[in-house]
Amino acid sequence: MADKTAVEPRRDRRHARHQATKREILDAAWKMVRDAGVNALSLRALARVVDMEPQSLYTYFDSKHSVYDHLFADGNRELLARFDRLEVSDDRRRALDAVARLFVTFAAEDQARYELLFLRTIPDFEPSPESYAIAVEVFKRGRSILTDVGLRTLEDFDLWTAVVSGLSSQQLANDPGGDRYIRLIDNAVAMFSEHVFGR
Amino acid sequence: MADKTAVEPRRDRRHARHQATKREILDAAWKMVRDAGVNALSLRALARVVDMEPQSLYTYFDSKHSVYDHLFADGNRELLARFDRLEVSDDRRRALDAVARLFVTFAAEDQARYELLFLRTIPDFEPSPESYAIAVEVFKRGRSILTDVGLRTLEDFDLWTAVVSGLSSQQLANDPGGDRYIRLIDNAVAMFSEHVFGR
DNA sequence: GCGATACTCCTGACACTGTTCGGAAAACTG
DNA sequence: CAGTTTTCCGAACAGTGTCAGGAGTATCGC
Fold this sequence. Notes:
The structure is a homodimer. Chain A is 71% helix and 0% strand. By secondary structure, chain A is an all-alpha fold. Chain A starts with a helix and ends with a helix. The A-B interface holds A 36-40, 111, 115, 118-124, 155, 158-159, 161-167, 169-170, 173, 180-181, 184, 187-188, 190-192, 194-195 and B 36-40, 111, 115, 118-124, 155, 158-159, 161-167, 169-170, 173, 180-181, 184, 187-188, 190-192, 194-195. Chain B binds a DNA duplex through residues 7, 10-11, 14-15, 17-18, 42-44, 52-56, 58-60, 63-64.
């Protein structure tokens, strides 16, 4: 009798929790990371949100780093998808502008995601080969768009990424939520294409 | 008797520890941060290095954030000193090149310091007014050098910082310890000054 | 339908973290 | 020498990621 009443509610909670699948956990993790910063992710707090015990998360993820790894993959997949959706103009300037705008916007949208994907800010975290492969894919896709546009040498490409990532990081650091550096994209693209293509 | 032998070594250690002053603690903190990343700093490990109990650190610092705050101030002071030591050439291109080189080198030297000063990577950390004042001083100094060179508008200045910080962050992220992006400084400065000054 | 197997989840525990409190020893001040 | 201030530590609290072991549930082969 006493046993039964003690076990009953546990079973109920089981059912409630059971729907908290991998995807839901990751979504909750995204929310936490966005609200409090990449390094403020806590497995225990995460478990609380998805109504689990912290140890149960280990059914879905090998470790905290594994959670980060999945977020890393998520972010890169999203970026890759946007690149795929992008229709590249024949006009050089227009194409460059679109790519820059795509990237800077992507960065400005979500500071945490930017940190996770492009800055090594979590101690000892390194993406798994599978996740890193997606990042490489993103890189290749970006690179191929730019070579199509006429950006041939690695030097020019590096200079391009420097400019675009510079705008992104400055936007996030000095004017998060605003458009102080986003407004400069036009100007920056003009500067860049004048330099490498002449005017 | 038993009491005395138990107390004796404690007194000896006291003397040994006593030389671990604020400066020494901060130096040790710099080393830890450089070796393991900004977010891997641990007060307990730090105390171990300077041969103290963790609680004793609170004699010198109000909190872990306060340690970060002092590091933040340290870094900005160093950068400010370098700006002061810099002799600005009359030649525009040369001057810009020197400033860019100064900054990118400073960034490339020490990833942890760069994160600490220019990226908001530590959860909830915000520099104290006193430390932030030094950062503002650095900003002013950089800005004044550039206006002297003929960079008048805020837009141009923002574009400049974007390019320079872009080179820095790319250097750290994609080729730490190397010079893949440092080599581009010449090129980048040419691009920038052609754009804002004409050629 | 039944037994074995796999999956999911939890209890308990360990070593670690930053931090607070209260007290003791040492250093400095009059 | 007495009194005050500075420096340090022992004990403890709430938080962290993680592991081991054991339940309950779902699924598969028979």
